[in-house]
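Memo to structure team: turn this sequence into structure tokens by end of day. - J.P.
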Amino acid sequence: MTALRVMTWNINGALGRNPRFDLARVVDYVRRHAPDVVALQEVDSRRARGAGVANPFEVLRDALGSHGTHAHAISTADGDYGQALISRWPLAASSVHDLSYPEREPRRAISAEIATPAGLLHVVATHLGLSLRERSRQAETLLGLVGSLQRPTVVMGDFNDWLWRGSVRRALRRVLPRCTGQRTFPAFLPLFRLDCIYVSNAVRIVRCRTDPSARSLSDHLPVLADLDMATGAARDIR
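Reply from structure team:
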């Protein structure tokens, strides 16, 4: 078995329940779970500037994996807001794609080829919009980024997906049939499965879980999945 651990987490700008900016606690928390690849949403350098802290995009990359890339959905004179994809292994290629929908908040997706010990892994990380029509359009774009599934593929992030009719889950599972199913939002009393990890048939979800202790750090709980890129046995773990 060739195992790797992936994680997705909306860190809510590194604001805890206080609320106060505390990037160090976010870093410590992610390190404790030791993911090989982590996708983080709502990274916000505007809050860091006000707190006199270094650029969070750079701090997170250097602290959690050495290799990575980021996508700025919003850029102002005060700083940037967006997401990051960080890996312990080199990125053979990466690109940022605009998923923005007219008159809605800008959205992005990161697509990367990660050079794992088992070979190249295609990872797409994203943070989708709040309206049903917006997410439907964005899901179709994600399917285009997934492509022909020539390599093992993981798509993860905050999908803001809580309705079944026209849902992102229904669209993505046409080509990525296995996914996690933890309730992650709101963190204090999780009701909705907004944060998710989807995998292609070449990947098996060996174990997946969330961690309620993260509720003091963000309004979302993270999702962690241990994956097997070798066997790809067909099953979901819930």
